[in-house]
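Final report, Chapter 2: Outcomes

The project's central promise was a pipeline that accepts a single protein chain and returns its three-dimensional structure in a standardized token representation, suitable for archiving and comparison. That pipeline is now operational. To close this chapter, we reproduce one record exactly as it appears in the project archive, with the input sequence first and the structure output second.
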Amino acid sequence: MTNFVDYSLNDGVATVVVNNGKANALSHEVFEELNKALDQAEQDKAVVILTGQPGIFSGGYDLKEMQKGMKEAAALVTVGSKFTRRLAAFPLPVIGACSGHAIAKGAFIMLSVDYRIGVEGSFKLGLNEVAIGMTMHHAGIEIARHRLAPAHFYRSVINAEIYNPEGAVSAGFLDEVVAPEQLLNRANELAQSFRKLNMRAHAQTKLKTKAGYLELLDHCIEKDAENLGLTA
């Protein structure tokens, strides 16, 4: 589709592939292209498979941007939070095909889609913010609280525990794990199953189920922006 995100449509399923270097870093440009891909999927009325490169879904935000300064970092976090909020309310089913490591924002994306498939192997998934000296933002805390198993919420958010793929299923980052060569086949199998849903009912039920969460998330995104000096 563009430089950092590939979009392909086949049999009512849109496959969206993030391709941005070794870490599949999430930059302003990547989020812009991801949003364009979701726009196209809505237009195509397609079930979405969101995936990365073999061995890595995403290592998180683009460090070059995050290290420019507090305001630049905050601006990228705001864009990222709005993207995960959009995923949480997306009117069509979204499958996360986690192709390897998913750290920080990569893991938050997995916490925001409808169904998550990981791959077997020595991969790491989790929220490492506290371990690298970052105080967790309000939106991140609520995204984690919304989807992680209660027993793993504190371990993940406060203790920055990192999981292997099987542990990530127990924690709530993933729903199942398959062999790497089976990832996209399994994702497409699920996508075809989801295509049989009544999409109006799916979209309305998703919004009804998540109404309180989405309202809270909007408040948290505003609060994070205020705390980091992005608003007057």
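Archive annotation: The chain has a mean pLDDT of 95.
This record, like all others produced under the grant, will remain available to the consortium after the project formally closes.
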